[in-house]
Amino acid sequence: MKALEAERIETLEAYLTVTNLRDCHLTKNDEKVLDKFAKLSDTKSGVEESEVFRLSQVFNLSSSKKKFNANMIEFGGKFPYVARGDSNNGIRGYITESEEFLNSANTISFGQDTATMFYQKEPYFTGDKIKVLRTKEVELDRYKALYLITSLRKSFSTFSWGSSSFNEKVLKETDVKLPIKNNQIDYTFMSDFIRAVEKLVIKDLVIWADKKIATTKEVVAR
């Protein structure tokens, strides 16, 4: 049991190091970003550093290049198959089909009757009722995407599951509140904020892992 635990802890330590998640120290900029977000969330702060945008101002909204029926495809392929599920980034499995029907990487998949939204870092195929959201001004990455998705979910929180309101016209006119700088959407702030939150979330895990590693080394030394 101790040997198995040591192996798992070693794997965790390697993962934290490779992904740079071991660095959970908040920098001055991290603290500044977190403070700004707190003020943005406080309606009494008087800080005017956010603005409401129409979804169509932020994204190009399009239909999937081709809809693949899950009952008529073979899983175990090369590319992600994104459906309307709410887990595993909406990925139901992997399939191999004509690459001309792949949707672009670094976009957000949106399930129309479930309002499920996920960042897709790789080219992907989809099932029915999936819209593809591509940012207009910048190339999307997972940090910007996580912030945008959270803002979008807040905007859609009053919609009901299966609502016909998720049609393309209404989606384009949906309001989303985003941070701004010099009257432009502040994508740098979005990335910095998510990175800072990631550090806060991972901090306890790093502390736990370090204690376990130290204990394991002590047992092995004996």
Concise summary:
The chain has 222 residues and is α+β, with helices and mostly antiparallel strands. Helices cover 41% and strands 20% of the residues. It has helices at 2-18, 28-41, 55-58, 142-155, 168-173, 187-221; strands at 50-54, 59-63, 79-82, 91-95, 107-111, 117-120, 125-126, 130-135, 175-181, 184-185.
Structure description:
The chain folds into two domains: 1-46 and 187-222, no CATH class; 50-185, Adenine-n6-DNA-methyltransferase TaqI, Chain A, domain 2 (Alpha-Beta Complex). The chain has helices at 2-18, 28-41, 55-58, 142-155, 168-173, 187-221, and strands at residues 50-54, 59-63, 79-82, 91-95, 107-111, 117-120, 125-126, 130-135, 175-181, 184-185. It starts with a helix and ends with a helix. With 222 residues, it is of the alpha+beta class. The longest helix has 35 residues, at 187-221.
